[in-house]
Amino acid sequence: MPQRARVAEAEQLPTGMSITPTAARGAKLEELNPDLPKYPAFRAGQAVTTAVSPDGKTLLILTSGYNQLNDAQGKRDPGGSNEYVFIYDISGAQGVKRQVLQIPSVFDGAAWNPRGDEFYVSGGRDDVIHVFGLAAGRWERRGAPIALGHAKGLGIKSGTGKEVKPMVAGLAVNARGTQLVAANFENDSISVIDLRQRKLVAELDLRPGKTGPSKAGTPGGEFPFWVAVAADSIAYVSSPRDNEIVFVELAPTPRVMRRIPVHGQPNRMLLDRKQSRLFVALGNADVVAVIDTVAGRVVEEIRTSGPKTDFPNLARLPGSNPNSLALSPDEGTLYVTNGGSNCVAVIRLSRNPGAAPSEVIGLIPTGWYPNSVSVSRDGATLYVVNAKSNPGRNSNACRNNTSSATDAKRGCYAANQYILQLDHSGFLTLPVPTSRELRDLTAQVARNNHVTRSSASSEKITAFLHGKIKHVIYIIKENRTYDQVLGDLEKGNGDPKLAILGKALTPNHHQIARQFVTLDNFYDSGDVSGDGWNWSTAARTTDMAEKNIFVEYGTNHGLSYDYEGTNRNINVGFATVRERRAANPNVPEDPDLLPGTADVVAPDSPEGEAGAGYLWDAALRAKLTVRNYGFFVDEDLYDLPKGDPAYIPLARNPFADKVVFAYPTKAALQGVTDPYFRGFDMKYPDYWRFKEWEREFDAYTKKGNLPNLELVRLPHDHFGDFGEGIDGVSTVETEVADNDYAVGLLVEKVAQSRFKDDTLILAIEDDAQDGPDHVDAHRSVALVAGPHVKQGAVISRRYTTVHLLRTIEDILGIEHMGLNDATVEPMTEVFQMEKGAWTYSSIVPEVLRTTQLPLPARAALERGGAATPCAGLAIQRLWRDAAYWEEKTRGLDFSIEDHLDTPRFNRVLWEGLKGEGVAYPALRSGRNLRAGRELLLKDFERSNSPPTLFPSQACRP
Q1: Is residue 883 pLDDT above 60, yes or no?
Q2: What is the H or E stretch that residue 939 is in?
């Protein structure tokens, strides 16, 4: 009797979902250790591609991302900072690691020569193809890498855009093994390589305007990602930005034959043996498209989310992110990795789709974000790799927290605890499940993804709130962990030793958490700002975002920051060159440079509308009113020199001065964005952002027409541009205090307005990458204020960014954006049906008295009588001046989120805020610190008595 799949213990993710990678019978999950002599315990992350040799005996596993290590002195170790090709012998029942090769830069592409004596790997930003051959039983390089030649003067390699490097992605080899075709992801072209001569013989630009001048300005062929080659004659190229497959005739000279539109972003493709069917994974639509290569049309679309019996009513909601494909030897079964729902879809293929469609017959659980699946030659075994893992606690993290040689000696930076370093990949091997096992495994995937209805109690309270709350103000801030900010709160599970931005600098965060709810088990779903801003606005990421982020955040930022509506540093919220140049004269005049408003990493709507899968899109579809303050605006404009024609001055009263700050990067935000609200710019205080928001809020108050959904960006807790900030807000202390005060002022403004009884305020960090936490590197700050919010409560239920978005949706009556937010429950424990009186009075952080911000007089804020010049300063640790921070951070890039040398900045912060004599805390157990907090805090304060203030930090009355 066949064995049933066991019910596995689930591991919770910061996305709100769970994983059970070893639930299947015989499943084996192995971490990828490249056996580095200096780092024997290192495990690689971001595995992206698997490829089986033509004889079926060898499996390649390719990593592509942030595999970087720092040595014992805290410096990046070139010998341990590479990407890897893991080579496994799969001739037996279990794969055996035989060899690991190192490559400086990689972007997804790996392909075998049909002869089996060579394989090829894309060189990513290095713009080369690496060749490996077999010699004496070992794989080794064969000659120098093949250069693709995207040089732009003085040998500088260039992609197509503004300040963009090349990036070679997918590779495919013809049937004779004589030609290789490479997709040039950042050059909108393919390169054809003669493998006998080892050189580039042709390059074809895939854009319509470059192949036919009459089509100038027509989108097409952009961001080519994957390639499949039929025999020796035709290459099929996926274009995820333009939702099309480009057919290219290779001989005698490469030319575009036709373009096949598809309903979603195509990523990877696979040909059957006859080469009559091309299977295409559409990551943004949860579909595999089947293209008849002879007729040149889509003949079938197969949904990959799961069988309808286990996934009721969810077939139309996106988020599964299909991203790789493998055929069984008899070609009757297609295996597809669903990166977003952490499983492999098993699809029974129809021989006659017109009569009987293909269908998903089951799902197999995997690790977190599976990227590739391969099948053994006998069809009995599946090989799956996933990209990442739960990071766990990072109490010794140095990202944005410490910075000196002494700290390095203490092992802080050398601990390698930056969140992307803690993302480890898994290699899953498992027998192909029986039909009965597959039913059980499918049910397990459904449980992992919470495909159930909300409880009656949650439905009752959200229905009640929907009738009471008419306005939601959603604030997104930048990059802080729970312990960094609230670790010294008198309640909740915080570690005061990690609270470098504690109550002296963030009194409003503390008071809001104290007065309303302390959410001490809240997790940001994103790792970094790139995916954090997508999780925070769409409750998911796309496969293109997942593939790009780890590479873009790696050494030298091999890709541009394409996650907030710019692609290749071009604002694609504007469709034409004329519109773009009106906002920024520096935009190139090329009409074929990303024409139209398509965004390569944007999520689609549930109805399939390209790039319309964000919260504001859903709100507008629900006929709600929306106002945007700083979300998804063109940030490149804020770092231009004063003499530049597109320079935007740091105006304190932009509306009065008619200084336009914000050029939205989304077409849907064009008409609902406050043009006078400055986006991400560390030179500009959040106080002035609040004042611009307040100007409009006052107008809404007079008219009684406050929008249903307000999106407010308050980014100054990110820190940066020290010495350049206006009004003296140019140190770590003043910037975080400025952010804190702006949050407090906004809550106070609502509390004293006519909208106080029907307005809810929610504030989160986009991610928690920039600091340590004794529980988990994803644990972060979430604040809630308003009517029907519990007061004085500690809420320790596990909530995530996705839960918060589900809460906004249910309260405002917005449709779900995808699978994730549709399947988690709203944050009902935060609320009560009793109304309860609420109010709030903002607190001026004392360090802001050292700035030139127009603050209320201290005497007016204290209970009667005059104030002493520096009242309340006894609790402050150590305040540095702008010159200190500027000197310590010289050479760092604060122009775009996360583009600085963040490990170095991390160390600067710890020493600057704690002092040179304060040792960084050792790694602890992640224990529960909720109990005995009074004694814990007293012991901490006794051992951390504050030093004397610097003379330059005199206080203003």
Answers
A1: yes
A2: helix 933-943
What's the token pair of residue 652? 């304190």
Alpha-carbon span 225 to 216, nearest angstrom = 22
pLDDT value, residue 347:
98
d(CA 771, CA 781): 12
DSSP class of 633: B
Q: Write the CATH number for 841.
A: 3.40.720.10
**Is the model's pLDDT at 648 over the cut of 60?**
yes
Same domain, 222 and 247: yes
Q: Domain containing 145: what range?
A: 11-389+424-448
What is the reported pLDDT for 940? 84
Q: How far apart are CA 87 and CA 98, in angstroms?
A: 6
**Domain boundary residue, one of 826, 856, 886:** 856
Whether 788 and 727 share a structural domain: yes
Element (H, E) at 879: none
Q: In terms of Cα–Cα distance, which of 472, 336, 506 is closest to 913?
A: 506
**What string of H, E and C letters represents the secondary structure of 235-295?**
EEEEECCCCEEEEEECCCCCEEEEEEECCCCEEEEEECCCCCEEEEEECCCCEEEEEECCC
Residue 29, both tokens: 């999950």
Of 666, 747, 772, 678, the closest CA to residue 716 belongs to 678
Tell me the DSSP string of 160-193. SSSS----EEEEEE-TTS-EEEEEETTTTEEEEE
How many other C-beta atoms lie within 10 A of the C-beta of residue 128? 23
Measured CA to CA, the distance from residue 796 to residue 792 in angstroms comes to 13
What 8-state DSSP symbol labels residue 841?
A: -
Does residue 464 share a domain with residue 428? no
CA distance 957 to 955: 7
Torsion sign over Cα 479, 483, 487, 491: positive
Distance of CA 182 to the CA centre of its chain: 26
Does residue 894 belong to any structural domain of this protein? Answer: no
In this structure, are 433 and 497 located in the same domain? no
Among 122-136, 396-410, 722-736, name the one with the lowest average pLDDT.
396-410
At 939 the pLDDT is: 84
User: Which tokens belong to 928?
Assistant: 């529960």
Domains in the chain, number: 2
d(CA 13, CA 389): 9
Same domain, 238 and 310: yes
Indicate the pairing of strand 199-205 with strand 227-230. unpaired
Average pLDDT score over the chain: 90
Classify 127 in phi/psi space as left (phi over 0), alpha (psi -120 to 50) or beta: left
- Rounded-to-integer distance, Cα 669 and Cα 831, Å: 31
Element at 209 (helix H, strand E)? helix 208-211
Residue 626 included in any domain: yes
Query: 3-state DSSP call for residue 304?
Result: coil
Are residues 356 and 316 located together in one domain of the fold? Answer: yes
Bridge-based pairing state of the strands 96-103 and 110-112: unpaired
Q: In whole angstroms, give the CA distance from residue 808 to residue 728.
A: 36
Q: Is the dihedral of CA 780, 783, 789, 790 positive or negative?
A: positive
In this structure, the answer to whether residues 37 and 143 fall within a common structural domain is yes
Contact 512, 503 (CB under 8 A): no
Neighbours of 846 (CB within 10 A): 23
- pTM to 2 decimal places: 0.92
Query: Most distant CA pair in the chain: distance in Å?
Result: 90
d(CA 465, CA 63): 46
Q: Which of 856, 891, 919 is the last residue in one of the domains? A: 856
pLDDT tens, residue by residue, 672-710: 999 999 999 999 999 999 999 999 999 999 999 999 999
CA–CA separation, 541 and 64 (whole Å) = 18
* pLDDT at 480 exceeding the cut of 70: yes
| Rg from Cα positions in the chain | 28
Query: The CATH number of the domain where 73 resides is what?
Result: 2.130.10.10
CB neighbours (10 Å) of residue 704? 8
- Cα–Cα distance measured from residue 784 to residue 853, given in angstroms and rounded to the nearest whole number: 27
Q: 887: how many CB neighbours lie within 10 A of its CB?
A: 12
pLDDT at 866 over 50: no
